[in-house]
Amino acid sequence: MWAEAINTACYTQNRTSIHKRFDKTPYKLLFNRTPDISFFKIFGCKCFILNDRTERSKLDPKARDGVFIGYSLQSKAYRVYLRDKQTIIESVNVTFYEMADFATEHLQADPTHALLETSDKADSNSELEGVILNSLFRNFCENSQPSSPPCTPASTSTAPHQPTPTTEIPLLPGPSDVPSTPSTPQSNHREVDDHGFATMPESSPPHTTATQETSIPYPDSDQPIITPTPLAHERKWTKAHPVDQIIGDPSQGVHTRSATVNECHFACFLSQSEPSNISEALLDPDWVIAMQDELNQFKRLDVWTLVPKPQKKTIIDMKWIFKNKRDEEGTVVQNKARLVAKGYNQQEDIDYDETFAPVARIEAIRLFLAYVAHKNFTVFQMDVKTAFLNGILEEEVYVTQPEGFVDPRFPDHVYKLKKALYGLKQAPRAWYDALTEFLVDSSFSKGKIDTTLFIKRQKSDIILIQIYVDDIIFASSNPRLCKHFEKLMKTKFEMSMMGELNFFLGLQVRQLSDGIFINQSKYILEMLKRFNIDDKSSMTTPMSPNNKLDSDPSGKPVDATNYRAIIRSLLYLTSNRPDIVFSTCLCARFQANPKESHLTAVRRILRYLKDTVNLGLWYPKHSGFDLVGYSDADFAGCRMDRKSTSRAVQFLGEKLICWSSKK
């Protein structure tokens, strides 16, 4: 990245350095206007780019991890290096983390010599900025000469005609005027602090040293809970190098293979493994941070309070769930720890009463999209973070203290819940009641038939809100109402604005200038790969018109588990593909004892899907909105019991919104 560093340094100097003769910057001398430097960022800082691709699914990350490396010369975009694909892209939708927390941790945790050249009298902000810029731009911003090789002992001096040995360029080189000490076993190890961040040594492969005890702050206590963090070599490389095979001091790092720069840099931020229990999670500082973030949410939302253990009350146990969130390339983008309650221990009429929470039907979602397409609205999407933690509980519910985060002053105390937790049987109901109360108080009216639809009229304008648990889609005739609704939700809940709707409940939604297109091409491709449909043959129809399936008692049995898995996937796909409803429902009748003829019929449907991957529903904007329905039935069509199969479809203008096929 030296070329990018030089370009960025020149770009910065031309707008910040003052020419002594003219008392102006080179930029002002050339363009006769003062340059704007408010958009300047620290070179090499961590950043995230908005993932606005149309094929992004709901489970895909909303942003991509990258490193800031410069500014675009053709537009007002930033140049960002993507670690996962090792490419450089330009984008304006970038969020920066300018290494403030990263550098602060090093300044507080015995920094290496690359971070020692600071002034004691300078304030913290100036000191931090000077440290980072000095290590990144020294060779460019100060026009200094190349640094000399590190000092070596006199006994190892080179011969007169022997070329001077060179050293490997470190990831974050230190100041050239700070002399290097002779190489020692301790100095050749990579230093890992309590939060999993690391500093790269100069001209040496990455090693580790022993970490200290990690102090985990407790939400409801001023006293920290000391949880021992394992040595770094026990955490990462014990499998390859057992402790009993180490010769020497085990507290020193274990020598391993030389890691690539990308591996070293990325390993500073996220854990690549998923712990199976709390004991394994407490051994990894990255997962300790993830668990602490979850507990910080509990404290911020005032979810519980610590009380003495009551008598004759059910105390519900807690459990940690650990999951790595990955992007489309399989790269870990977030270590997510979720604290859930073991709701199966709850007793009805004691620990909970109402549990039902309305959920929007898929037909209601299609009707919503058909209406906004007819009215030429733009649909937006937002997500409520930790939605269930906002629900108010009416019952007295007590839970144990989370394992690994027990208050040392009151180890026998329990938590009395004020709000719902994930895992509680009444949590969905409590969240729905809290959201409904807030929207009704904000002058929204709840639908009488579909209670997940909320409408607000303001003079001649209207805004529609469709709720599906913690996912919200909304559209309005006036864009200002959408902006107002977004601000309104953020005043009460912690929201994640996802922009225009492009993926919802497994449906890929494309909002075009002349209508809305809905399909599930990504799911179809994944399904074909999962069931090994890779042959070149494809079908133009899902089922042969002459194929009359029956129980086939003399047929060859097949694996029922695999057959049922295919049927489940096809039934899920029928929410967007009415063309396979009849054939899928027909094959689903033989799941109890599937035969080879049934499997052949099912695989024909898959081959048909392979030929029609991009087929979907089209809702044109300029069409009518009159309800039109069609129905038909095959009289005594079933060969086994002579029952009929009725089929029906309903249109709103030219927009297909509902269909069925029932025996």
UniProtKB/TrEMBL annotation:
Q: Which SUPFAM superfamilies match?
A: DNA/RNA polymerases
Q: Which domain of life is it from?
A: Eukaryota
- Which segments constitute the Retroviral polymerase SH3-like domain? 45-105
| Regions annotated as coiled coil | none
Spell out the residue ranges making up region: Disordered: 143-222
Ranges annotated as biased composition (Polar residues)? 178-187, 201-215
Q: Where is the Reverse transcriptase Ty1/copia-type domain?
A: 302-544
InterPro entries, alphabetically? DNA/RNA_pol_sf, RVT_2, SH3_retrovirus
PANTHER family in the record, alphabetically? GAG-POL-RELATED RETROTRANSPOSON, PEPTIDE SYNTHASE GLIP-LIKE, PUTATIVE (AFU_ORTHOLOGUE AFUA_3G12920)-RELATED
Write the protein's name.
Reverse transcriptase Ty1/copia-type domain-containing protein
Q: Which organism is it from?
A: Cuscuta europaea
